[in-house]
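Q: What structure does this chain adopt?
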Amino acid sequence: MTGTPGAGAAVAVHGQHDLLSEAYSAIDEWMVTNRREAAGHSWEIYGDPTPDPAKTETEIVCLLK
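A:
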């Protein structure tokens, strides 16, 4: 059986792909502040490209324990 843990996920949406590290840092800070722990799996969901790359959204999902 496969699936995802039922503990939820931390999610951030960012608009500028070359600055995604800022979104990952925000998720890390949120987990520390809220005493949550990553389950070891995360992924990125890329939005539809726009003429302005800074407005193309990327959603980062980090599963929580």
